[in-house]
Every structure is written in C-alpha cells, then in structure tokens.
C-alpha cells in the first residue's frame, strides 16, 4: 500500500470521529502524532519503519516535490523516489531506529555503500531517526551525491518545511512529560490537577474554566474523601525522579 492510500484510509477513519476535520489539519495531526511516538517501541517494527517512510513522503510533498511510489522502487532498492520541479530524480533512503531502545541502533558504513551503489538518481538523501557512525561521518566527503540527515538534521529539515509543526510538537511533548492532556470537552483548554481547600480533595479541571466546565474527581488514591493532601502530595508527577 502506498502512503496516499494509507493516508486516505486513516483520514476517513479519523473524520468519522471528528466530522469537522479538514485535510490540512489532519496532515498536521498525523505528523505530530508520528513525532510524539517517534521513540515508542512497538512489537511490529516493520510497521514503524513504514510509518517513518510515510512521514518523510509527506514532508517532501509539502516541500513541493513529486513523490513517486512504484513497484520499481522495490527493485531499485530505494525507499522513496522524489522528483523536483526541474525533473531531477532524488532517491531517499529511510532508516528508523528508536533511540529509547535498550541498545539503540546507529547507521553504519555498509548501509551507505549499498545506497551509494544504486544507479539512476541525480541526488540521494539518507535519513535516519538515529545517528551515523564515526566511519560514516568521516567519509561523508567520499559521497558528494548523498545528503546525510540524522536525528538533529531531521528536526532541522522539519523546521524548514513546516516550522509551526515543530513548535506544536515541542509544546505537546512537554505536556506529555508533565502528564497534562488537551481537554476532552472543549479541545481548547488543558486538563490540570487542582486542590479544593474547602472540600479538601483533589480534582481535575480545564484551564479554560469558566468557559469550560470539565471537572473530574481524582480517584487515584481511592475514595475521594481519603484523597487528602496529607496522604501524598500528588502522584501526578510520580514518573519524575528528582
Ligand atoms: Zn475544556
């Protein structure tokens, strides 16, 4: 399945849940969701590699390239073929490695040599979510036709094409680390934990109050009336170690 088919399928699924969703918003949502799960380790690793390819294809499309996905690309041994508006052919090789793996993988020289040997492109790009080994970095000049993009380069690349995306990603990633979620009710505010002095209990509320009345008791310590500040300050930030 190519990414356009994949994309229209998940767009239809998401649209059935949020009927007002526009294709542009959806593209942004897809890109951000992907970035937020970049280092999540799934059982199905090939699926994750494919999602990375889709992510890169979308970025190249947004950058104005024509992205070609043909069976031929499989024979050629290249992940993505892009064409710029002057008709120049660009081969793009994608290597997804999670940096949160116990022993994260890095891209070595053999992958580069193999990619370098594939004929038929005016330019080549090797993109990884990980890093290149020292051998690759010290011999980059031997491959003037290849552009090397590692994790940091990937963020710079995104920043060039859709700068807003990176800001949104950093913002949402920050919320995730602090265990704060977008409000389910108004989708405008954020759900934070609060403490009622008068009633002596913790609860969750929307930052958009009084415009949004989302409220939920914090039941993490059992019954609400046992849920007093004296028990434990909060398990809200329990993931953090000081
Ligand atoms: Zn709200």
Automatic annotation (TrEMBL):
MF GO annotations: DNA binding; restriction endodeoxyribonuclease activity
Restriction endonuclease type IV Mrr domain sequence ranges: 48-157
Species this protein is from: Streptococcus cuniculi
A Pfam family hit: Mrr_cat
Assigned keywords, A-Z: Endonuclease, Hydrolase, Nuclease
Keyword Hydrolase: yes
GO biological-process terms attached to the record: DNA restriction-modification system
Record's protein name: Restriction endonuclease
InterPro entries: Restrct_endonuc-II-like (IPR011335), Restrct_endonuc_IV_Mrr (IPR007560), tRNA_endonuc-like_dom_sf (IPR011856), Type_IV_Methyl-Rstrct_Enzyme (IPR052906)
């Amino acid at each position: 399945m190519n990414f356009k088919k994949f994309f229209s399928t998940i767009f239809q699924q998401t649209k059935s849940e949020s009927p007002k969703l526009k294709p542009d918003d959806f593209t942004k949502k897809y890109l951000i969701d992907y970035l937020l799960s970049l280092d999540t380790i799934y059982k199905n690793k090939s699926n994750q590699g494919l999602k990375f390819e889709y992510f890169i294809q979308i970025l190249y499309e947004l950058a104005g390239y024509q992205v070609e996905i043909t069976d031929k690309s499989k024979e050629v041994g290249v992940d993505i073929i892009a064409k710029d508006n002057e008709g120049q052919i660009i081969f793009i090789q994608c290597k997804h490695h999670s940096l949160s793996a116990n022993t994260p993988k890095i891209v070595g020289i053999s992958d580069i040599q193999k990619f370098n040997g594939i004929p038929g492109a005016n330019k080549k790009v090797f993109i990884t979510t990980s890093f290149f080994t020292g051998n690759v970095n010290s011999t980059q000049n031997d491959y003037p036709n290849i552009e090397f993009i590692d994790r940091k380069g990937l963020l710079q690349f995104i920043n060039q094409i859709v700068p807003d995306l990176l800001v949104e990603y950093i913002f949402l990633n920050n919320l995730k680390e602090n265990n704060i979620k977008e409000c389910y009710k108004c989708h405008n505010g954020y759900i934070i934990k609060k403490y009622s002095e008068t009633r002596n209990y913790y609860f969750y509320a929307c930052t958009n109050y009084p415009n949004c009345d989302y409220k939920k008791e914090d039941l993490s310590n059992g019954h609400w009336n046992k849920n007093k500040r004296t028990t434990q300050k909060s398990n809200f930030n329990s993931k953090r170690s000081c």
